[in-house]
């Protein structure tokens, strides 16, 4: 019968976790990279207006002058529509959303850590009670409950943080990345 080597198990577990995390990060970055070089739907009219607005059938000087004055006017109107939607949100409501998101993130982290602490205390007391009796396979399996609860908490917090990040709706992907890393 082979002995169970705990340091080797920790090493391989951490190595496999880093490998899977690296694959997920590369996939996520490739999707983000692909999205950053597309023409966005809301700004697609601007690109069409810039590259396709000149009518080459215009031959009179007066028509050429009117057309050349008309293009910047249309571009300014389209830009004001795009920027106007962002300004309507208001700074106060944006700050309220960010404050709510951060309080949800910090509160969920605190309560998750508190829950894990209480569960660890409970498991420690159960282990002390079970130490008096005979050690069985069930008692050994109970040792895996705490790492399972910690892993589930991390998984649930990750989903909650992604939901909160979606709720905040950052314009810049780099800001979203920095906030996600900090959380």
From TrEMBL:
GO CC annotation terms, alphabetical: plasma membrane
Membrane spanning residue stretches: 6-28, 99-123, 143-164
Molecular function per GO: mechanosensitive monoatomic ion channel activity
InterPro entries: TMC
Keyword terms: Membrane, Transmembrane, Transmembrane helix
PANTHER family (alphabetical): TRANSMEMBRANE CHANNEL-LIKE PROTEIN 6, TRANSMEMBRANE CHANNEL-RELATED
Descriptive protein name: Uncharacterized protein
Taxonomic source organism: Hucho hucho
């Amino acid at each position: 019968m082979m002995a169970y080597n705990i340091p080797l198990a920790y090493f391989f577990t951490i190595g496999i976790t880093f490998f899977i995390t690296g694959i997920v990060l590369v996939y996520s970055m490739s999707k983000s990279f692909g999205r950053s070089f597309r023409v966005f739907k809301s700004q697609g009219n601007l690109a069409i207006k810039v590259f396709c607005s000149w009518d080459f059938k215009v031959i009179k000087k007066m028509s050429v002058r009117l057309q050349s004055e008309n293009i910047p006017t249309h571009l300014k109107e389209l830009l004001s529509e795009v920027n106007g939607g962002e300004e309507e949100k208001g700074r106060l409501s944006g700050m309220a959303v960010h404050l709510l998101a951060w309080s949800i993130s910090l509160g969920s982290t605190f309560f998750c850590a508190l829950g894990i602490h209480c569960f660890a205390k409970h498991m420690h007391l159960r282990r002390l009670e079970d130490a008096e009796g005979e050690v069985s396979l069930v008692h050994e399996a109970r040792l895996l409950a705490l790492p399972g609860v910690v892993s589930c908490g991390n998984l649930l917090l990750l989903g909650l943080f992604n939901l909160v990040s979606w709720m905040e709706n950052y314009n810049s992907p780099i800001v979203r990345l920095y906030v996600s890393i900090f959380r």
